Amino acid sequence: MSTRTRTIAVIAPLRHPIQEPHAGGLEAMVWDRVRMLRARGHRVLLCAVAGSQFQEGGPAEFRLPPVVWPDERDATDSTFPPGHLERAIPALEAALDFIRRHAGTIDLVDNHSLHPQPLNWAGRLGVPMVTTLHTPPLPRLVPAARAAEHHGKLLAVSSHTAAEWREHGVEALVMPNAVDGDRWRLGPGGRDLVWFGRIVPEKGVHVAVQAARLTGRKLRIAGRVGDVPYFREHIRPFLGRGVDYLGPLGQPALADLVGRSACALVTPLWPEPFGLVVAEALATGTPVAAFDAGGIGEVAGGAAAVGLVPMGDAEALAQAAERLVPVGRHHRQRTRAEALARFSLDHRAAELETVFDLAGADAWV
Question: Where do the Glycosyltransferase subfamily 4-like N-terminal domain residues begin and end (predicted)?
Fold first, then answer.
């Protein structure tokens, strides 16, 4: 338990509720963050899309409008439906104003929003802010991040991401994402391959399908469809032909699926800021064949259970998976132990509280 309890306002992204099944790695990370902080004795107020867990008893201003598509067949993770931001941004500003008006009772803002408004408000909240940079330097975020540096701390999820932001004049401490080892348990392995995450073009699940077909192994896909046209065109035609789509799974079922797989395929077709799925798979003992993109190599960290190949190379991915598959229980146990030594949620908690202390001390210097 923490020796100092705080009241912390956690600001989540504007797109998806923080609930299970998780919409993606970012939402899973925020969900774990809230649970971890509360378990360590802190009072957490979650500002997130309505329907999120952990909002009971919190201010009404912290319930942001949900994304509603007039036609779900048009839904993507790269755009918003017409009129949504015109509702969401004023709601977010009302939440920030609540923090400003209650600055005497809120110790810190833990910001995970991908919109610049929380950063734009950092200097007038009267509360220090810790912002985690989960993405490459988005043009709309860079000026706000520069301006907010004197009112808290900026964290980057990988050295790769920190270096990208540094090129734009923004300095951030590196704090990798973490995995709850009590929820991502050791699995027995199996014969099939697995791919899990958001189903969007930049995650490259269609290349995982190609690689799996080259190995002759079945591929099981789990995750939320974040781009309906992409799924309809590139994934659906292969279903039932050595490819199963299981939909979005709650964390216990997802961890069980990954732990019963021979190898996880991780296929980003963009410079992935972190790659939480790599750490999650390794925590179950399951090896990972992955494209060496962005922060993926940092998460791999030279682990023998990870095979890195050039981005987009389905044949090399298939070969890496086949090399990694024949592992016994001892190797799976060692893979898990090495992953938790680097990415345990418990270890990260103490580091985060140290950053919170520094943010409070430095914010108004």
Answer: 24-183
* Domain housing 143: 7-178+344-362
Burial class of residue 174 (count of CB atoms within 10 Å of its CB; 0-12, 13-18, 19+): middle
Residues 355, 361, 364, 365, CA torsion sign? negative
Q: What is the pLDDT of residue 3?
A: 58
Residue pLDDT, tens place only, 84-114: 999 999 999 999 999 999 999 999 999 999 9
Return the CATH number at 226: 3.40.50.2000
- Residue 11, CB-side half-sphere exposure with 13 Å CA sphere: 31
Residues sharing a CB contact under 8 Å with residue 319, sequence separation 6 or more, in sequence order: 309
Do residues 232 and 127 both lie within one domain? no
With 0-12 CB in 10 A as exposed, 13-18 as middle and 19+ as buried, what is 86?
exposed
